[in-house]
User: Fold these one by one.
Assistant:
Number 1:
Amino acid sequence: MTEKKVRALFSREKIITEDSNESRALYDQSRFGELQEGKFYYSLVEGLYLLDKKKIDIIDGKKKKLKVDEFVRKARKIEPNFWIRYVVFRDMRDRGYIVKTALKFGADFRVYDRGIKPGEDHAKWILYPVHEATTLTWYEFSAKNRVAHSTRKRLLMGIVDDENDVTYYEISWTKP
């Protein structure tokens, strides 16, 4: 028996689906999406990850089922840095971490240690995905470190190379 997929709608910066057994199972098992007023809302990176893993079907406003490359094209129009963010998100998820957006912290993602679910404990890291060719000023770098420090989280930089491999660097404050 094949697993029933979640059916969702691509709606601007979010992917939206009804609260169903399938969408609830994705949430309960791996904390995909956020439940608000009887609907699950997924970030674009969550939507692509679930589409790529064949857990979800995403339709556009014209009721057309989106393929992965079509989804990526649409998402890049909304978020120019989408692909780099997705590569880091996918890598962390494939490694067994729960990754959620961190816009209210002024970061891309918050990452929970393995075995920890949002609501059970706080995220361990604030994660910033960047391409290896990207340059950061000391001011930008310091600002990222301050955000992590002020939210009592560790700073994690996910550096994506041209082969879509990710190298992680954890940065911390020290007092001499």
Note: The helical segments are 21-30, 44-52, 68-78, 82-94, 138-150.
Number 2:
Amino acid sequence: MIIYLVRHGQTDWNAQEKVQGTTDIPLNATGLAQAEKARELMKDIPIDIIYSSPLIRAYRTAEIINEYHHVPIITEPRIRERNYGIYEAAKYDAYPGVEYWDYALNKRFEGAETVREVFERVYRCLDDIRRDHPGKTVMLAMHGGAARAVHVYFGGFPKSGTLKGLVTPNAEPIRFDVPDDMPAYMPIPELPEKEGI
């Protein structure tokens, strides 16, 4: 099967370098234009189904891309953004990003999901999607933080030593070619591979 990962278009909080998390911020004018550009890039791709985070910035991005495809959009809470707890609405330079995304440390910050909780829900979702749609082309409309789990699921832990370095640009489709016989990943790995984090 083929999976396309599409992070939502820009929001005002992206432009202001503020952590969004589960705060439901809509696309701004730039984000709408980015989603429209992704729509044009993907118009000839035979997408079978779209799974979207329930947050409006991701769902609206999915709707715009779907204007050429008219396929079902399934709202999937397991690919929503990470709950950042006390750091929701914080400036990027005011939250401890590297520590926040340290998989081995897996620290629980006040009110927030841990890294592994995010990975577990995203991994379970990807396992289910692969089971339910073998041989199909599936698009995921989601978020930069939670998308780190998608990158690791298909590509392994980064050699850079930090998940924080796994960046998904706004509304730029990323393709993963997935053999139908690729094994499921649950449970999530206890620790990264030696060459990883």
Note: The CA atoms of residues 1 and 134 lie 6 Å apart.
Number 3:
Amino acid sequence: MKILFVCFVMMNLVGFVIMGVDKSRSRKGQWRIRERDIFLMALLGSAIGIACGMFVFRHKTKHMRFVLGVPVLVLANLWVLRALLL
């Protein structure tokens, strides 16, 4: 169970970093990470990191799909994590 929790934390760190990288690329007009891929990562366990990245980097906060969808995925991630750890 400890390994599962460590994996969960690492996935969320990656999600947080990805939001920062995408924001940086956005400012520079460079190649971006697809929204579909960001949502897929959130669905697979990185939702908390992505949510934190959204607000720390002020990235995707005007997109209602993210403002509403990511918190739902955070709850889903926490529910799955709780179910796996019990």
Note: Residues 5 and 81 are 8 Å apart (CA to CA).
Number 4:
Amino acid sequence: MTAVPFDTLKLAGRLEDGGFTHEQAKTAASALAEAMAGAELATKNDIIQLEQRLTIRLGGMLVVAVGILLAAVRYLPPHP
């Protein structure tokens, strides 16, 4: 997981342009930067690996389910 660069000065400027006071903009920008610093963001590679693991897990569950159904058909007595 990688950190995303974040320009607090640019955000504060945009907030001021939107009507925030200088102090409000500075505080909001620093709070957001602080929150994002601790955030763990998934990369494209993380998503691909997760997709592969889920596909393998789903395939395994499908094989088990078909095996159970085939065993039930073969070993359960016929319905009268």
Note: The longest helix spans residues 44-75.
